[in-house]
Amino acid sequence: MDDQPRLMHAHAAVGMSGHPGLSQHIPDNTGATDGDGRKQDIGDILQQIMTITDQSLDEAQARKHALNCHRMKPALFNVLCDVKEKTVLSIRGAQEEESPDAQLMRLDNMLLAEGVSGPEKGGGSAAAAAAAAASAGVGADNSTEHSDYRAKLTQIRQIYHTELEKYEQACNEFTTHVMNLLREQSRTRPISPKEIERMVNIIHRKFSSIQMQLKQSTCEAVMILRSRFLDARRKRRNFNKQATEILNEYFYSHLSNPYPSEEAKEELAKKCSITMSQVSNWFGNKRIRYKKNIGKFQEEANIYAARTAVSAASVSAHGSQTNSPSTPNSAAMRTYDHRLQ
DNA sequence: GAGCATGATTCGGA
DNA sequence: TCCGAATCATGCTC
Predict the structure, then answer these.
(1) Where are the domains of chain A?
(2) Which region among A89-98, A101-110, A296-305 has the lowest average model confidence (pLDDT)?
(3) Chain B positions under 7 Å from a protein CB?
(4) Of A120, A177, A232, A261, which alpha carbon lies 20 to 30 A from A110's?
(5) What CATH number does the domain located at A241-313 have?
(6) CA of A245 vs C1' of C3, distance in Å?
């Protein structure tokens, strides 16, 4: 396993033609000139390498062993590594260009903002903002929907982290496997540590692109969840009968000026178990619809006027109040009617 | 399913 | 920022 660095480091002291040092380290056992001996050795090795794939497994193994033991093998492999390195670099130089991965950064930032990646913070700031925005309109059910949103976001978060972990584990396993394979192969073919490193980088890049896809789908899932959640604000639910009666009572008893103050809105909201915005919406709608069709609302106004009068009378009968300030009467209605004209 | 009722949203004006 | 007006979207009734 670890013989490759040793094998490659020997390169500094070994060489061939154009690679100083080879002739000084290779004894000439053939009795021929140095040049002839080297050529014969190298030719022999190359021949063996070229024909190794035509042989049976056993023969190939034996040949592999013989090659590994060949006296010229380190020198030849170093030269081949050198040549390969230069060729690959010249090709890669034209192909590779490091560009900052803006898309990945955007995805990372979004996942962080949504609370999917990074430390758990109860659904993420954007989620919290969405929840806060929604709570203004959803009313009594907002807490349920909010928790539902958070539960789903947590689910997405869990899936994301599980998948990410899986990818990282697979990446590490695959990298180790490829490294071992290349080291093993470096016994029979020229593979330098640099090349192994490059291969590792390639693997990491491939796994990064898979991770990016995961991040992208996670972002999409969060966006869908958010849009669904925000759409829920539009989901209209009728107020319960009691709430409508309370609002109508106030409206008709303040017909001369049906604009509740902040305090009144707050109290009405509390009484009706709705939000202040809903109270404002209700009064806005009521005013405009009343104005548009006074005739239609006349009957309703009379009913609430009578009801308020009865309750006022009952209060005055108890001596605590002689006259209700909010008692509706036709004069008040006329006032508002006049105002609205 | 049509038509009406009603809560929510949007937009322009004061 | 609040309000009126228009509009949307959904609920309810028949």
Answers:
(1) 102-117+142-234, 241-313
(2) A89-98
(3) 6-10
(4) A232
(5) 1.10.10.60
(6) 23
